[in-house]
Amino acid sequence: MAFRRSLIVASLAVSLSGLASTLPARAGGVNFGEDSDTNDGPSYFGFVRDSDGSPVAGARVTAAPKAGGSLVTRSNSMGVYKIPGFAKEIDPKTVDISCAKDGYSQASVLRRGQVDTKDPVEIDCTLQKQ
Amino acid sequence: MRCAMRCATRWATTWATTRIMRIALGVFAAVLFFVLVQPGRAQTLTGTVSSAAEGAMEGVLVSAQKDGSPITVTVVSDASGHFRFPDGRLSPGHYALRIRAIGYDLDGPQSVDLGATARDVAIRLRKTSDLAAQLTNTEWFMSMPGTAEDKRPLIECMSCHSFERIVRSTYDADSFVPVLKRMAQYANNTIQARVQSRVAARDVNDASVRKLAAYLATVNLSRGPVWNYELRTLPRPKGRATRVVVTEYDLPRKTIAPHDVRIDRNGQNGSGPNGSGPNGSGHVWYSDFVENFLGELDPQTGAVTEYPIPVAKPGFPAGTLDLEPDADGNLWLALMFQTGLARFDMARKTFKIFPLPAALNDDAMQQSMVMPASASVDGKVWTNDVARQSIMRLDTKTGAYERINPFAFLGNSHLHAPYGMAADKANDLYFMDFGGEAVGRVDAKSLAPTLFPTPTEKSRPRRTMLDAQGHLWFTEFAANKLAMFDLKTEAFKEWAVPTPHTYPYDVFRDKNGELWSGGMASDRVLRFDPQTGQSVEYLLPRPTNIRRVFVDDSTSPVTFWAGNNHGAAIVRLEPQD
């Protein structure tokens, strides 16, 4: 989908000069199934546990790359969270994962190694009861 | 003398008694007259529905439209085949009768004369010879062979036309390709009665088009005169779904496409937490998706008033989409390809246009959404730039727009599309990522974006409303779910709608906590209780392409309203319990 970015940039430049431009087909309407995810990077998941290793449900998990903005989700009853992720160009190593829950403080964040860059990225949190 | 006095007293007593009785009789007669022979009001129209195949039939919609009137009233037959129009709802006159019952046509009578006395009609149905003409988009989805992935692109087609147009076509895969490419250049505010072309060409992926064309050629009539698959249908309404009265108001032109509909009642504000509403006339206001008018309907008479919106970009598609009230009760419109925003002063009945600066106002520019509910906090109104998948914010004092790209931090990933919007009391924006699977938030002060992915992947959240408890109700269009996001706990709840392939467009939470939803596929209005999981689906009398839905909480039971986007009508649905 690199073409899309260049397309948008190009279209902005072209349109500002008053000429017709082409834009992605979604635009609130028809997309004919071309909503490809081929440029998406890996998803993220992990376990939120307390210092005893018990799962922590309902923890707020934030994934934030260097650019401004964040993806936020909650851990489930098993302490598991899942985040769809970012584009390929975002290096998982630059994505900060943090976990929080009332009554707890974040003790540690453990990044597991990826065998393949397409594999989901596992980042686990340990919370300490206050 | 005594006698005279007694007699006089007796006479007076008798006279008085007689007079009281006469007055009472007179009052009784007058009451009887108004009850039985109300001037200008016909007696109740009642009757039965039956067919040779089934005998008495439940769940048949019976519609009556008086000659020359824009108003059609519909009721539904009960378990014994009986139907009854509400007392006093139909005035004397000649009425055309219509029915809706999948698999059947009306055998007769085709019309009925209503006078001052009660009328009971026996309606006979016969098996239809053209079942395909009666299928909803949902039923075509159910019938067509193919995988979910094959069918997924078709959820876009419903925006402009029904599936009957596709399945009755005879294009083979190759000849479908240029048709699809041509349609991709139409504006999304297009209906069959008014096709509008985009000025800025859209890039269309050739491989995607060919894949879709190949699939469509397997479900249409390109290989023979009949479909090579069974036509599957949904059951007729029964039980609670038959206890309803539907009123359809035909609009004055076929080219009016009501998109967002709302009633001006005090205290009604389906999109923001402020709870204030317009002047409470009970009139219906609607945006017209394909013409530059704001419409006002008087539901008592069916009369329509149209307020022309200045055309800023001649030659570009006309029409507006989102219609939202601000805290003062004035209505705001997103001007689509005419670009920018408009505020309609409800007292003066005049528009103030907030145009985009020329540098931003290119050929592809399009505003589909507007959110002014909390503009009184900081003078800012939210909107979107559809073509560039970004949020924009208007400063109402200066007229300046600023751009926020809430997806930039994700990198150049799959397509996103900010759509339905709501604002909290601080005027922080909550929006739906219609292209993806998230509820988004933009902080009013820092403009920092946060995305909250829905539990269901590829859910494509569409329209939304924020209730006074801080619950954001929305539809997951592609996932066939209704959903709620709690602003405080940031937790989601999701409920699958009872009928597959419904593709809910919008949802409204009423005063009782029940959810009301509609869409472009099933011709049904969904009433859903998230506490119990119980649902009712009310079938509508005609093919009805529903967009924004609205519930009038001032009545009891509540009253549901929506536009028929492809049918040039406003629909009122009154549940009877």
Multimerization status: heterodimer
Which two chains have the most extensive interface, and how many residues on each?
Answer: A-B, 51 and 58 residues
Helical content band of chain A? 10-25%
Number of domains of chain B: 4
Topology order of chain A in helix (H) and strand (E) letters: HEEEEEEE
What portion of the residues of chain A fall into strands of 2 or more residues? 25-35%
Write down the overall geometry of chain A: elongated
Strand order of the largest sheet of chain A: 4-1-7-6
The residue ranges of chain B in which pLDDT falls below 50 over 5 or more consecutive positions are 1-18, 23-39, 267-279
**Number of helical regions of chain B:** 7
Instruction: Report the β-strand fraction of chain B as a percent range.
Output: 25-35%
CATH topology of the largest domain in chain B: Methylamine Dehydrogenase, Chain H
Query: Biggest sheet of chain A, in brief?
Result: 4 strands, mixed
Outline the structure in words.
With 130 residues, chain A is mainly beta. Chain A folds into two domains: 1-36, no CATH class; 44-129, Immunoglobulin-like (Sandwich), CATH 2.60.40. Helix content of chain A is 12%, strand content 33%. In chain B, a hairpin with a 6-residue loop joins β33 and β34. The termini of chain B are far apart. The longest helix of chain B is centred in the first third of the chain and has 35 residues, at 2-36. Chains A and B meet through α1 and β3 of A and α5, α6 and β26 of B. β3 of chain A pairs parallel with β26 of chain B, so a sheet runs across the interface.
Describe the SSE topology.
The complex is a heterodimer of chains A (130) and B (577).
Chain A: H1 2-16, E1 44-50, E2 60-64, E3 70-74, E4 80-83, E5 96-100, E6 104-111, E7 121-129
Parallel strand pairs in A: 1-7
Antiparallel strand pairs in A: 1-4, 2-3, 2-5, 6-7
Chain B: H1 2-36, E1 45-51, E2 55-56, E3 61-66, E4 71-76, E5 82-84, E6 93-100, E7 104-108, E8 111-114, E9 119-127, H2 137-143, H3 148-151, H4 164-167, H5 173-184, H6 206-219, E10 244-250, E11 258-263, E12 284-288, E13 293-297, E14 304-308, E15 323-325, E16 331-334, E17 341-345, E18 350-354, E19 370-371, H7 375-378, E20 380-385, E21 390-395, E22 401-404, E23 418-423, E24 429-433, E25 438-442, E26 449-453, E27 461-466, E28 471-476, E29 481-486, E30 492-496, E31 504-509, E32 515-519, E33 524-528, E34 535-539, E35 549-552, E36 559-564, E37 569-575
